[in-house]
Amino acid sequence: MQRTPRVSIFPNPRDVARTLARRVAAALRDNPRVVLGLPTGRTPLLFYEELVRLHADEDVDFSQATTFNLDEFVGIPAGHPGSYRTFMGRFLFQHVNIDPARTNFLDGAAADLNEECERYEDSIAAAGGIDLQILGIGTNGHIGFNEPGQELDARTHKVTLRPETRRSNAALFGGDPDSVPTHALSMGMGTILHARKAVLLATGDTKARCVERVVRGPITTTLPASLLQLHPDAELMLDNAAAQELDGVS
Length: 250
Ligand code: F6R
Fold this sequence. Notes:
CATH class: Alpha Beta
Order of helices and strands: EHEHEEHEHEEHEHEHE
Number of helices: 7
Bound molecules: fructose -6-phosphate
Largest sheet: 7 strands, parallel
């Protein structure tokens, strides 16, 4: 049996981004109606840059694709400069021919957050599920905003953000960790694991420790990304720096 997650190692973050962008372009050509799950954060920026380039240079067509973002902060309106919706517009959606009606976000300003989470799960199901879920990883092992804990929620839910997660998002809020919302909505681990394929991107040496534990186990709720070992088609795409604690794994 092939080990899961598979591990692919590239010389640098640009090569990781280029390879994944090419794969997404191929997936769009094969199935223009592909459903993508998308992360925010620093790691996917080069990947989004490559997708924008492929759209401009090679006419990669996003017009029928559907996207679902993994998470969103609670308590800020969609148009807030720190929202993940704003992030996606700035780095990808404003630069490709995606239909805004097919881009899906959690609304962190919804009056009823439980209802909002249910709506999101229903929308994913109505779209036929996620074909390719792309993920980043927090230095504490979170994916989406599923923070380490005794239990993990299966479905889209409200989360309390850990101090380290608020710190790493401070740049979106004028550099002040205290201005980062204390809560977020996130797809759950079940939502993520139900995607037909999952690709986790990790670059840089700050991710190396975590990556080693994700690959070698054990599977534990204290390292949410370790649950990817249960996914039949999961892959880690790493640069050399993030892979430095792995030897002989490929
Ligand atoms: C954000 C998300 C998070 C990030 C993680 C890594 O949508 O899903 O899990 O992927 O916090 O963030 P960076 O890439 O900034 O290190």
